[in-house]
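Section 5.1 Outputs to date
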Amino acid sequence: MGWDAQPLVEAADERPLIERRAVVRDGFYELQARVVIERVARTAGIAQRWAVSPYRGCAHACLGCGARGGHRRLGLDAGRDFDSRVVVKPNVVARLRAELARWGGEPLAVGVSGDCYQPAEETYRLMPGVVTALAEAGVPATVYTRSPLVLRDAALLAECGVRVAVSIAFVDERIRRAVEPGAVGAQARLELVASLVEAGVDCRVLMGPVLPLLSDGSDQLAATVRRIGQAGVRSVEPVVLRLPAGTRSWFGAWLEQAHPGLVARYEELYGRDGLPSPAYEERILGQIAQLCRVYGMRCGPGEPEPRDPWFGQLALV
């Protein structure tokens, strides 16, 4: 006679860590964050040392996104999981307010581990609360995005004095479709920049990542800087592609398939830390700086000025 018996030891849960801890809702992974102000990786290439990101992972699916490695800590891969399994921090505003109450006032970046105006923001609408919390604390902040959805909050961003940096690394649509398949094209982003400037938002362009041997030709750089200048911004922050762990493997797999002749050159250009050769980076940044002078724009990171706390418009009754 056969016997049915309950196993004495429960089978190990082999699901990824994020699936064991998060609530899955409408395809997003909701995870209550314990800390939301995080240190920016040295390889990021931006000016700020600290950042807050309502989302981890990004539907824009940019091959060179330096935040890809963070998904590995969640038990996910840095490739397609990063593009499709977006983690949402629904308590980000409450946690941010608590952390800002004892913050020293150092500038913050917003949207480093995933674009803060990607499609998930249409559902969760976390950014108005984030922007308001930063303004009320008087903390200088820069929102990094590729998305026209930021226009929804243009009035609030202008009133709060929160800077927006729109990423426009190149204006060649063939390159954009290959390496930024989920993001809108360069023309749409240039129009976005013009609209933000018109709305009174402190707006600049993050000209990055510049892709070695793909978007770094003199004519390509000149065309990009010229069109950025025509959009009405007065400041450009150039960044050469970084390839930290996670990003390097994903970008490298694409490069080997799409441009196998460049693989050896990339191996020469990039060290183990994922940073480009200093000589190469200095040359590219120098070219962009010279082009910016031609078109009357500042070139470099530049920090927003410290602000007094903002309390919004008081009701009269």
